[in-house]
Amino acid sequence: MQQTLAGIDFAPVLPLWLLGLLGAVAVLALAPAFWRRARGAWLRALGFALLLMALGNPRLVEETRETRPDIAVLLVDRSDSATLGPRAAQVEAARQVLEERLGRLPELEFRTVEVPEAGNQGTRLFSALTQALAEVPRNRLAGVLALTDGQVHDVPLPPTLDAPFHALLPGRTGEVDRRLRVLEAPGFGIVGRSVELRIAVDDLGAPPGGGQARLTVRRDGAAPVTQTVPVGREQRLTIPIERGGPSVIELMAELRPGEVSDLNNRAVITVMGVRDRLRVLLVSGEPHAGERTWRRLLKADPGVDLVHFTILRPPEKDDLTPLNELALIAFPVRELFQQKLREFDLIVFDRFANRGILPPAYLRNIADYVRGGGALLMSVGPEFAGAVSLAATPLGQVLPARPVGGQRNGVQEGPFRPQVSPEGARHPVTEGLTGANPDAAREASWGRWYRSVRAEPRGGVTVMQTPDGAPLLQLDRVGDGRVALLLSDQIWLWSRGHDGGGPQAELLRRAAHWLMKEPELEEEDLSARIENGRLRAERRSVATGTPPDFTVTGPDGSVQRLAPTLGAGGRATLDVPAAAAGVWRVTDGQRTAFAAAAAVNPLEVADLRADPAPLAPVLAATGGSAHFMGLGEPVLPELRRVSPGRDMQGGGWVGLRRNGDHTVTGIAALPLLPPWLALPLVLGVAVLGWRREGKVSSGSA
Fold first, then answer.
1. What's this model's pTM, rounded to 2 decimal places?
2. What is the per-residue DSSP string for 384-431?
3. What fold does the segment set 524-597 form as a domain?
4. DSSP assignment, residue 438?
């Protein structure tokens, strides 16, 4: 749109300071004449005025302008809190109405800017606005209309916006919201002990006065425990850690009547159960080449407290050597195997024979220790096949194999390479060991052993065997405990690198951890975790065949039945999206696993009320306003164009500034006192003044 404006402009011939100096000289020259009231004083003043005007060069200027429309920015908040429940539909309806109204305003353009969900950074509304304003000239910005719930987390302080900012909020004033805050939660806990959580339940927007709320605590999907906690005050919860691995703890505060949403009424915490220093009892039945290997292996782990005894002289070999020359302390049989037996996490018998050192009552105590949840690892040699074998004692009731062949035929001599059995290829203790045979038809690449004890399995699973199929490493569960039986005393050859060596440390580490029920080494296990918004479940089993379908239950109660993908080593995996925060439950029909999905954007769910308070500094600095759109169909204020310097908001309207920005397309200038006219006028007035003064002088004479 073009406009033509006319006005008077000056283009002085001399600098302004010189014109001012000439004006001062003129005033000094005229002052005596006016003081004497001379009759030609006014003509002198007129002459000086015409001269100064001519030097000022007045012009009639006609300017042609092309006005440019102002620009308004419409911000649409698409963050999680702004699109909660009915807010999404209300914001979208308001956007359509505002775009229609803005399109009808004259000399105004508008730009709609979507503010996306920003992950865990909260609502980045002003970051989106700054990016949009990078292409908008500031002298054309009429104002900003923001469709938002007010929960903005990047408000600039001090505000830098120089145009009115108006916030239009879904819902109505006076909303309340109950939230559950986790003030402190440890990531790890010692198995057998308890951890302490610090939480608080707050009622936002409610009048002060406290009150109480019911809090439900559920751990790993077990039966919930409900207790009453005060509102607005810190509360401490004690959670026992009963097993190793992750424990998923779900906390949920009861719904408050009239609150916006219960999305932030719950919290999910994962506490990793770890064992304190492990207490291991190692009893070596006699000195032999592999004894030091066991000690070195267990002492290398800083988390292991090792108690080691070696039987240097069995009772039947009494050579009258004084006891104080054979041992620093006497073998504390009663203290170890009766009084403090259950304080040990693992008992290791290395080539121990029943030569009367341990009475049957103590061996029975060890068997009861295993049935009650203890862990026993036995590495045996020729003594296991003879008359002094522990298999013939009360301890034999918990062993997974019995020797066969007697002292003469029960020991197999000769080089062989241990093999992982077909069951062992799927068992976590032996799965994927470096150098293992890829299948039963091919040989392993690790070093050879030279002796094994022939035994008949009684229970459990054979994970390692000799080339002819005889058991070599037998694992079994007995009651609540576990037993591992290594039917050879040659594993130490691997640690010495003989014939290429082998994964001795890794194999024994896995066996010890399996015995102590570490979750990552369970042969029948189902685990689940949340990573990058996806639920990843894994089932591990030594059983063959097609794995069963997984049943996935989301935090909202939705149920999906999905088929996992079968992989190597008896593993079946499932990978599905998991966007909802809360506890996800996965079951294969026998086992159940839980995974905790924290809120994707914790800043967004910290306060779910529609509240203009976070925007107050910007509203005050720009002269803007905040309006609630009510419930249902949005009720929007009227849009008005307002001149600069006036109020930008009223009771039922909001203002967009009228900037009047323009571009000059043409200028025409007409001199009002050109030189050819100014010179005669100045000379004429000077002559008239001279004649006038001359007549006065003649009359006086």
1. 0.66
2. GGSTT-GGGSGGGGG-SEEE-SHHHHSEEEEEE--EE-TTTTTSTTTT
3. Immunoglobulin-like (2.60.40)
4. S
